[in-house]
Fold each of these.
Amino acid sequence: MQTGPSNKTISTRTKPDREQASSRFKARKAAKAAQVAKEIAEIEATKEAEAAKLAIMAEKDSQDTTKRLTREEVAKNNTEDSLWTIVDHKVYDLTDFIDAHPGGNVVLKQFAGQDATTAFYNLHRHEVLHKYSDLRIGTLEGEKSEVIEPHAGDLSQVPYAEPLWLTPAFKSPYYNESHHKLRKAMREFVDTHVSPEAHEKELDGTYISQELVAKIRCSSCGRARP
Ligand code: HEM
């Protein structure tokens, strides 16, 4: 019986050649693993630094080390030379900010000495108050903030804002603890890194940064997330 040509390739490499090739392969593998570990460490360090910065800002905002003021005191500061306004039971001195306000000075003058909570939340994101927390000079005597401070990764407290299966009351064997953990981690990532830059880029019309693209890349395999 005729047999076909053998597929087996006979190696011409000697044992030392093979050993050399094997150690080259191991060295390449180790270098790649070291590079991946370095990239992961860099991403983790940035993530930690940004999370720490946000936590400090939120902590600073929730701490109430400022003065206690009455609505009457605020009402007296209603001129361009001393312009105070109230947002969510907190008092802001906008005197030096009037001309720097991106929405113009006219609107701020209209709310001089008054409670501008509704007008403010109709036009601004809550995070604006974090950015301008230096303007805060006090809190209203006997009053407490009503706005629920959002934290990265949290579910929305607004009724019906979240799908039913994410609410704590809903129990399903198909959506268990590990799914909740993954969901929270993804939201934390989006809330911390993606949303702030997306808002910024929406306003100036430019592309997202390469740093954000790098963060979105899968840290374990180095490929872009699908
Ligand atoms: C603590 C007080 C306030 C601060 C720190 C503040 C800050 C800002 C900032 C940073 C923006 C740029 C857009 C943004 O980042 O959201 C803005 C826009 C604007 N603000 Fe204020 N603001 C304050 C109070 C007010 C009040 C009381 C009004 C009264 C209606 C007002 C009316 C507007 C308007 C009309 C815009 C332009 C919105 C647009 O172009 O879409 N702001 N403000």
Amino acid sequence: MSPKASPISNAQRALDTEPQSVDAPLSAAAAFLVLVVKDDDASIATARSVVASTGDLIKDLRIRANSGLFTCNVGISHRVWGPLTGKPAPSELVPFREVRGATHTAVATAGDLLYHIRADTMDLIIEFEKLLLEAFGDAVTAVDDVAGFRYFDGRDLLEFVDGTANPDGLDLPAATIVGEEDPDYAGGSYVVIQKYLHDLSAWRAQKVETQEAIIGRTKFDNVELPDATQGQKSHKTLCTIQDADGEHDILRDNMPFAVPGRGEYGTYFIGYSRHLWVIEKMMERMFIGDPPPLHDRILDFSKAVAGVTFFAPARKFLSDLAD
Ligand code: HEM
């Protein structure tokens, strides 16, 4: 008979595997800050120490948020995992794998650290980024910094409600948080980002019925349309991954972003998953098509201009990097 784990060891395990704020509610504002770490030893050491102290910086800001929402999740890429943590990478962590379909490509771009920051107001986000980047100094280069905003009732700039099918309740950690299948990284989550730019005039030239068939939901009231069993599938159907184990969900916290003066309107896709392969499979179905070459028609109006994969480890893993 195997000995039972004591309450103390259970509590310690819970502490060691406490996830970052993956399950934070959809916020009014967000930022997606992607950094590349310089390769010299001093820069790596600075980056390690700033990443380790991010939890303290979050607390410094949260107390100033007057009980409003403020969360930040840190992701680390495959490229810097070894140098930064001194540990072997999580079992599924690989660099973003480009997906080249007959017409569209999910491009892979640079990025070593992801800061996914969510708050009720933009002032907190900017303050946090300012303090964070001061701490990093010239150890990093920011390759992207996108401010996302909530658009009416949670719509993307294609004007559809985005985020509906996200898992909730106990399904949320089951879909997003690594468990004992990778014990050293239990409590962590794979995170993939993609930046999309929309061709809004081409999209708006489509009939609402065409747009609804592309997404797989009605536009005004967000009701799910039946899945096509053959031929062209909707975005919703292509992103539904089912096998003998059932349906595999991910958590999305996409945000619209825009610079109207430059005609720039986009969606910043962010997906959290317990298994990287689930997000990769969705992208394969979107870009290559199911069946090929019937790609996701959302891509005829939305161009992927960035794509990076990270792993957001448990909180304690991050703070322990200081040791
Ligand atoms: C231009 C970028 C994108 C836009 C505007 C977009 C928009 C949407 C919208 C409006 C829905 C339907 C409502 C909902 O359930 O949220 C949806 C569903 C979904 N999308 Fe996307 N999406 C984008 C990219 C992606 C990517 C890159 C992935 C994954 C790799 C993805 C995964 C999903 C999933 C899993 C669902 C739910 C499917 C289900 O009903 O089970 N999306 N998306």
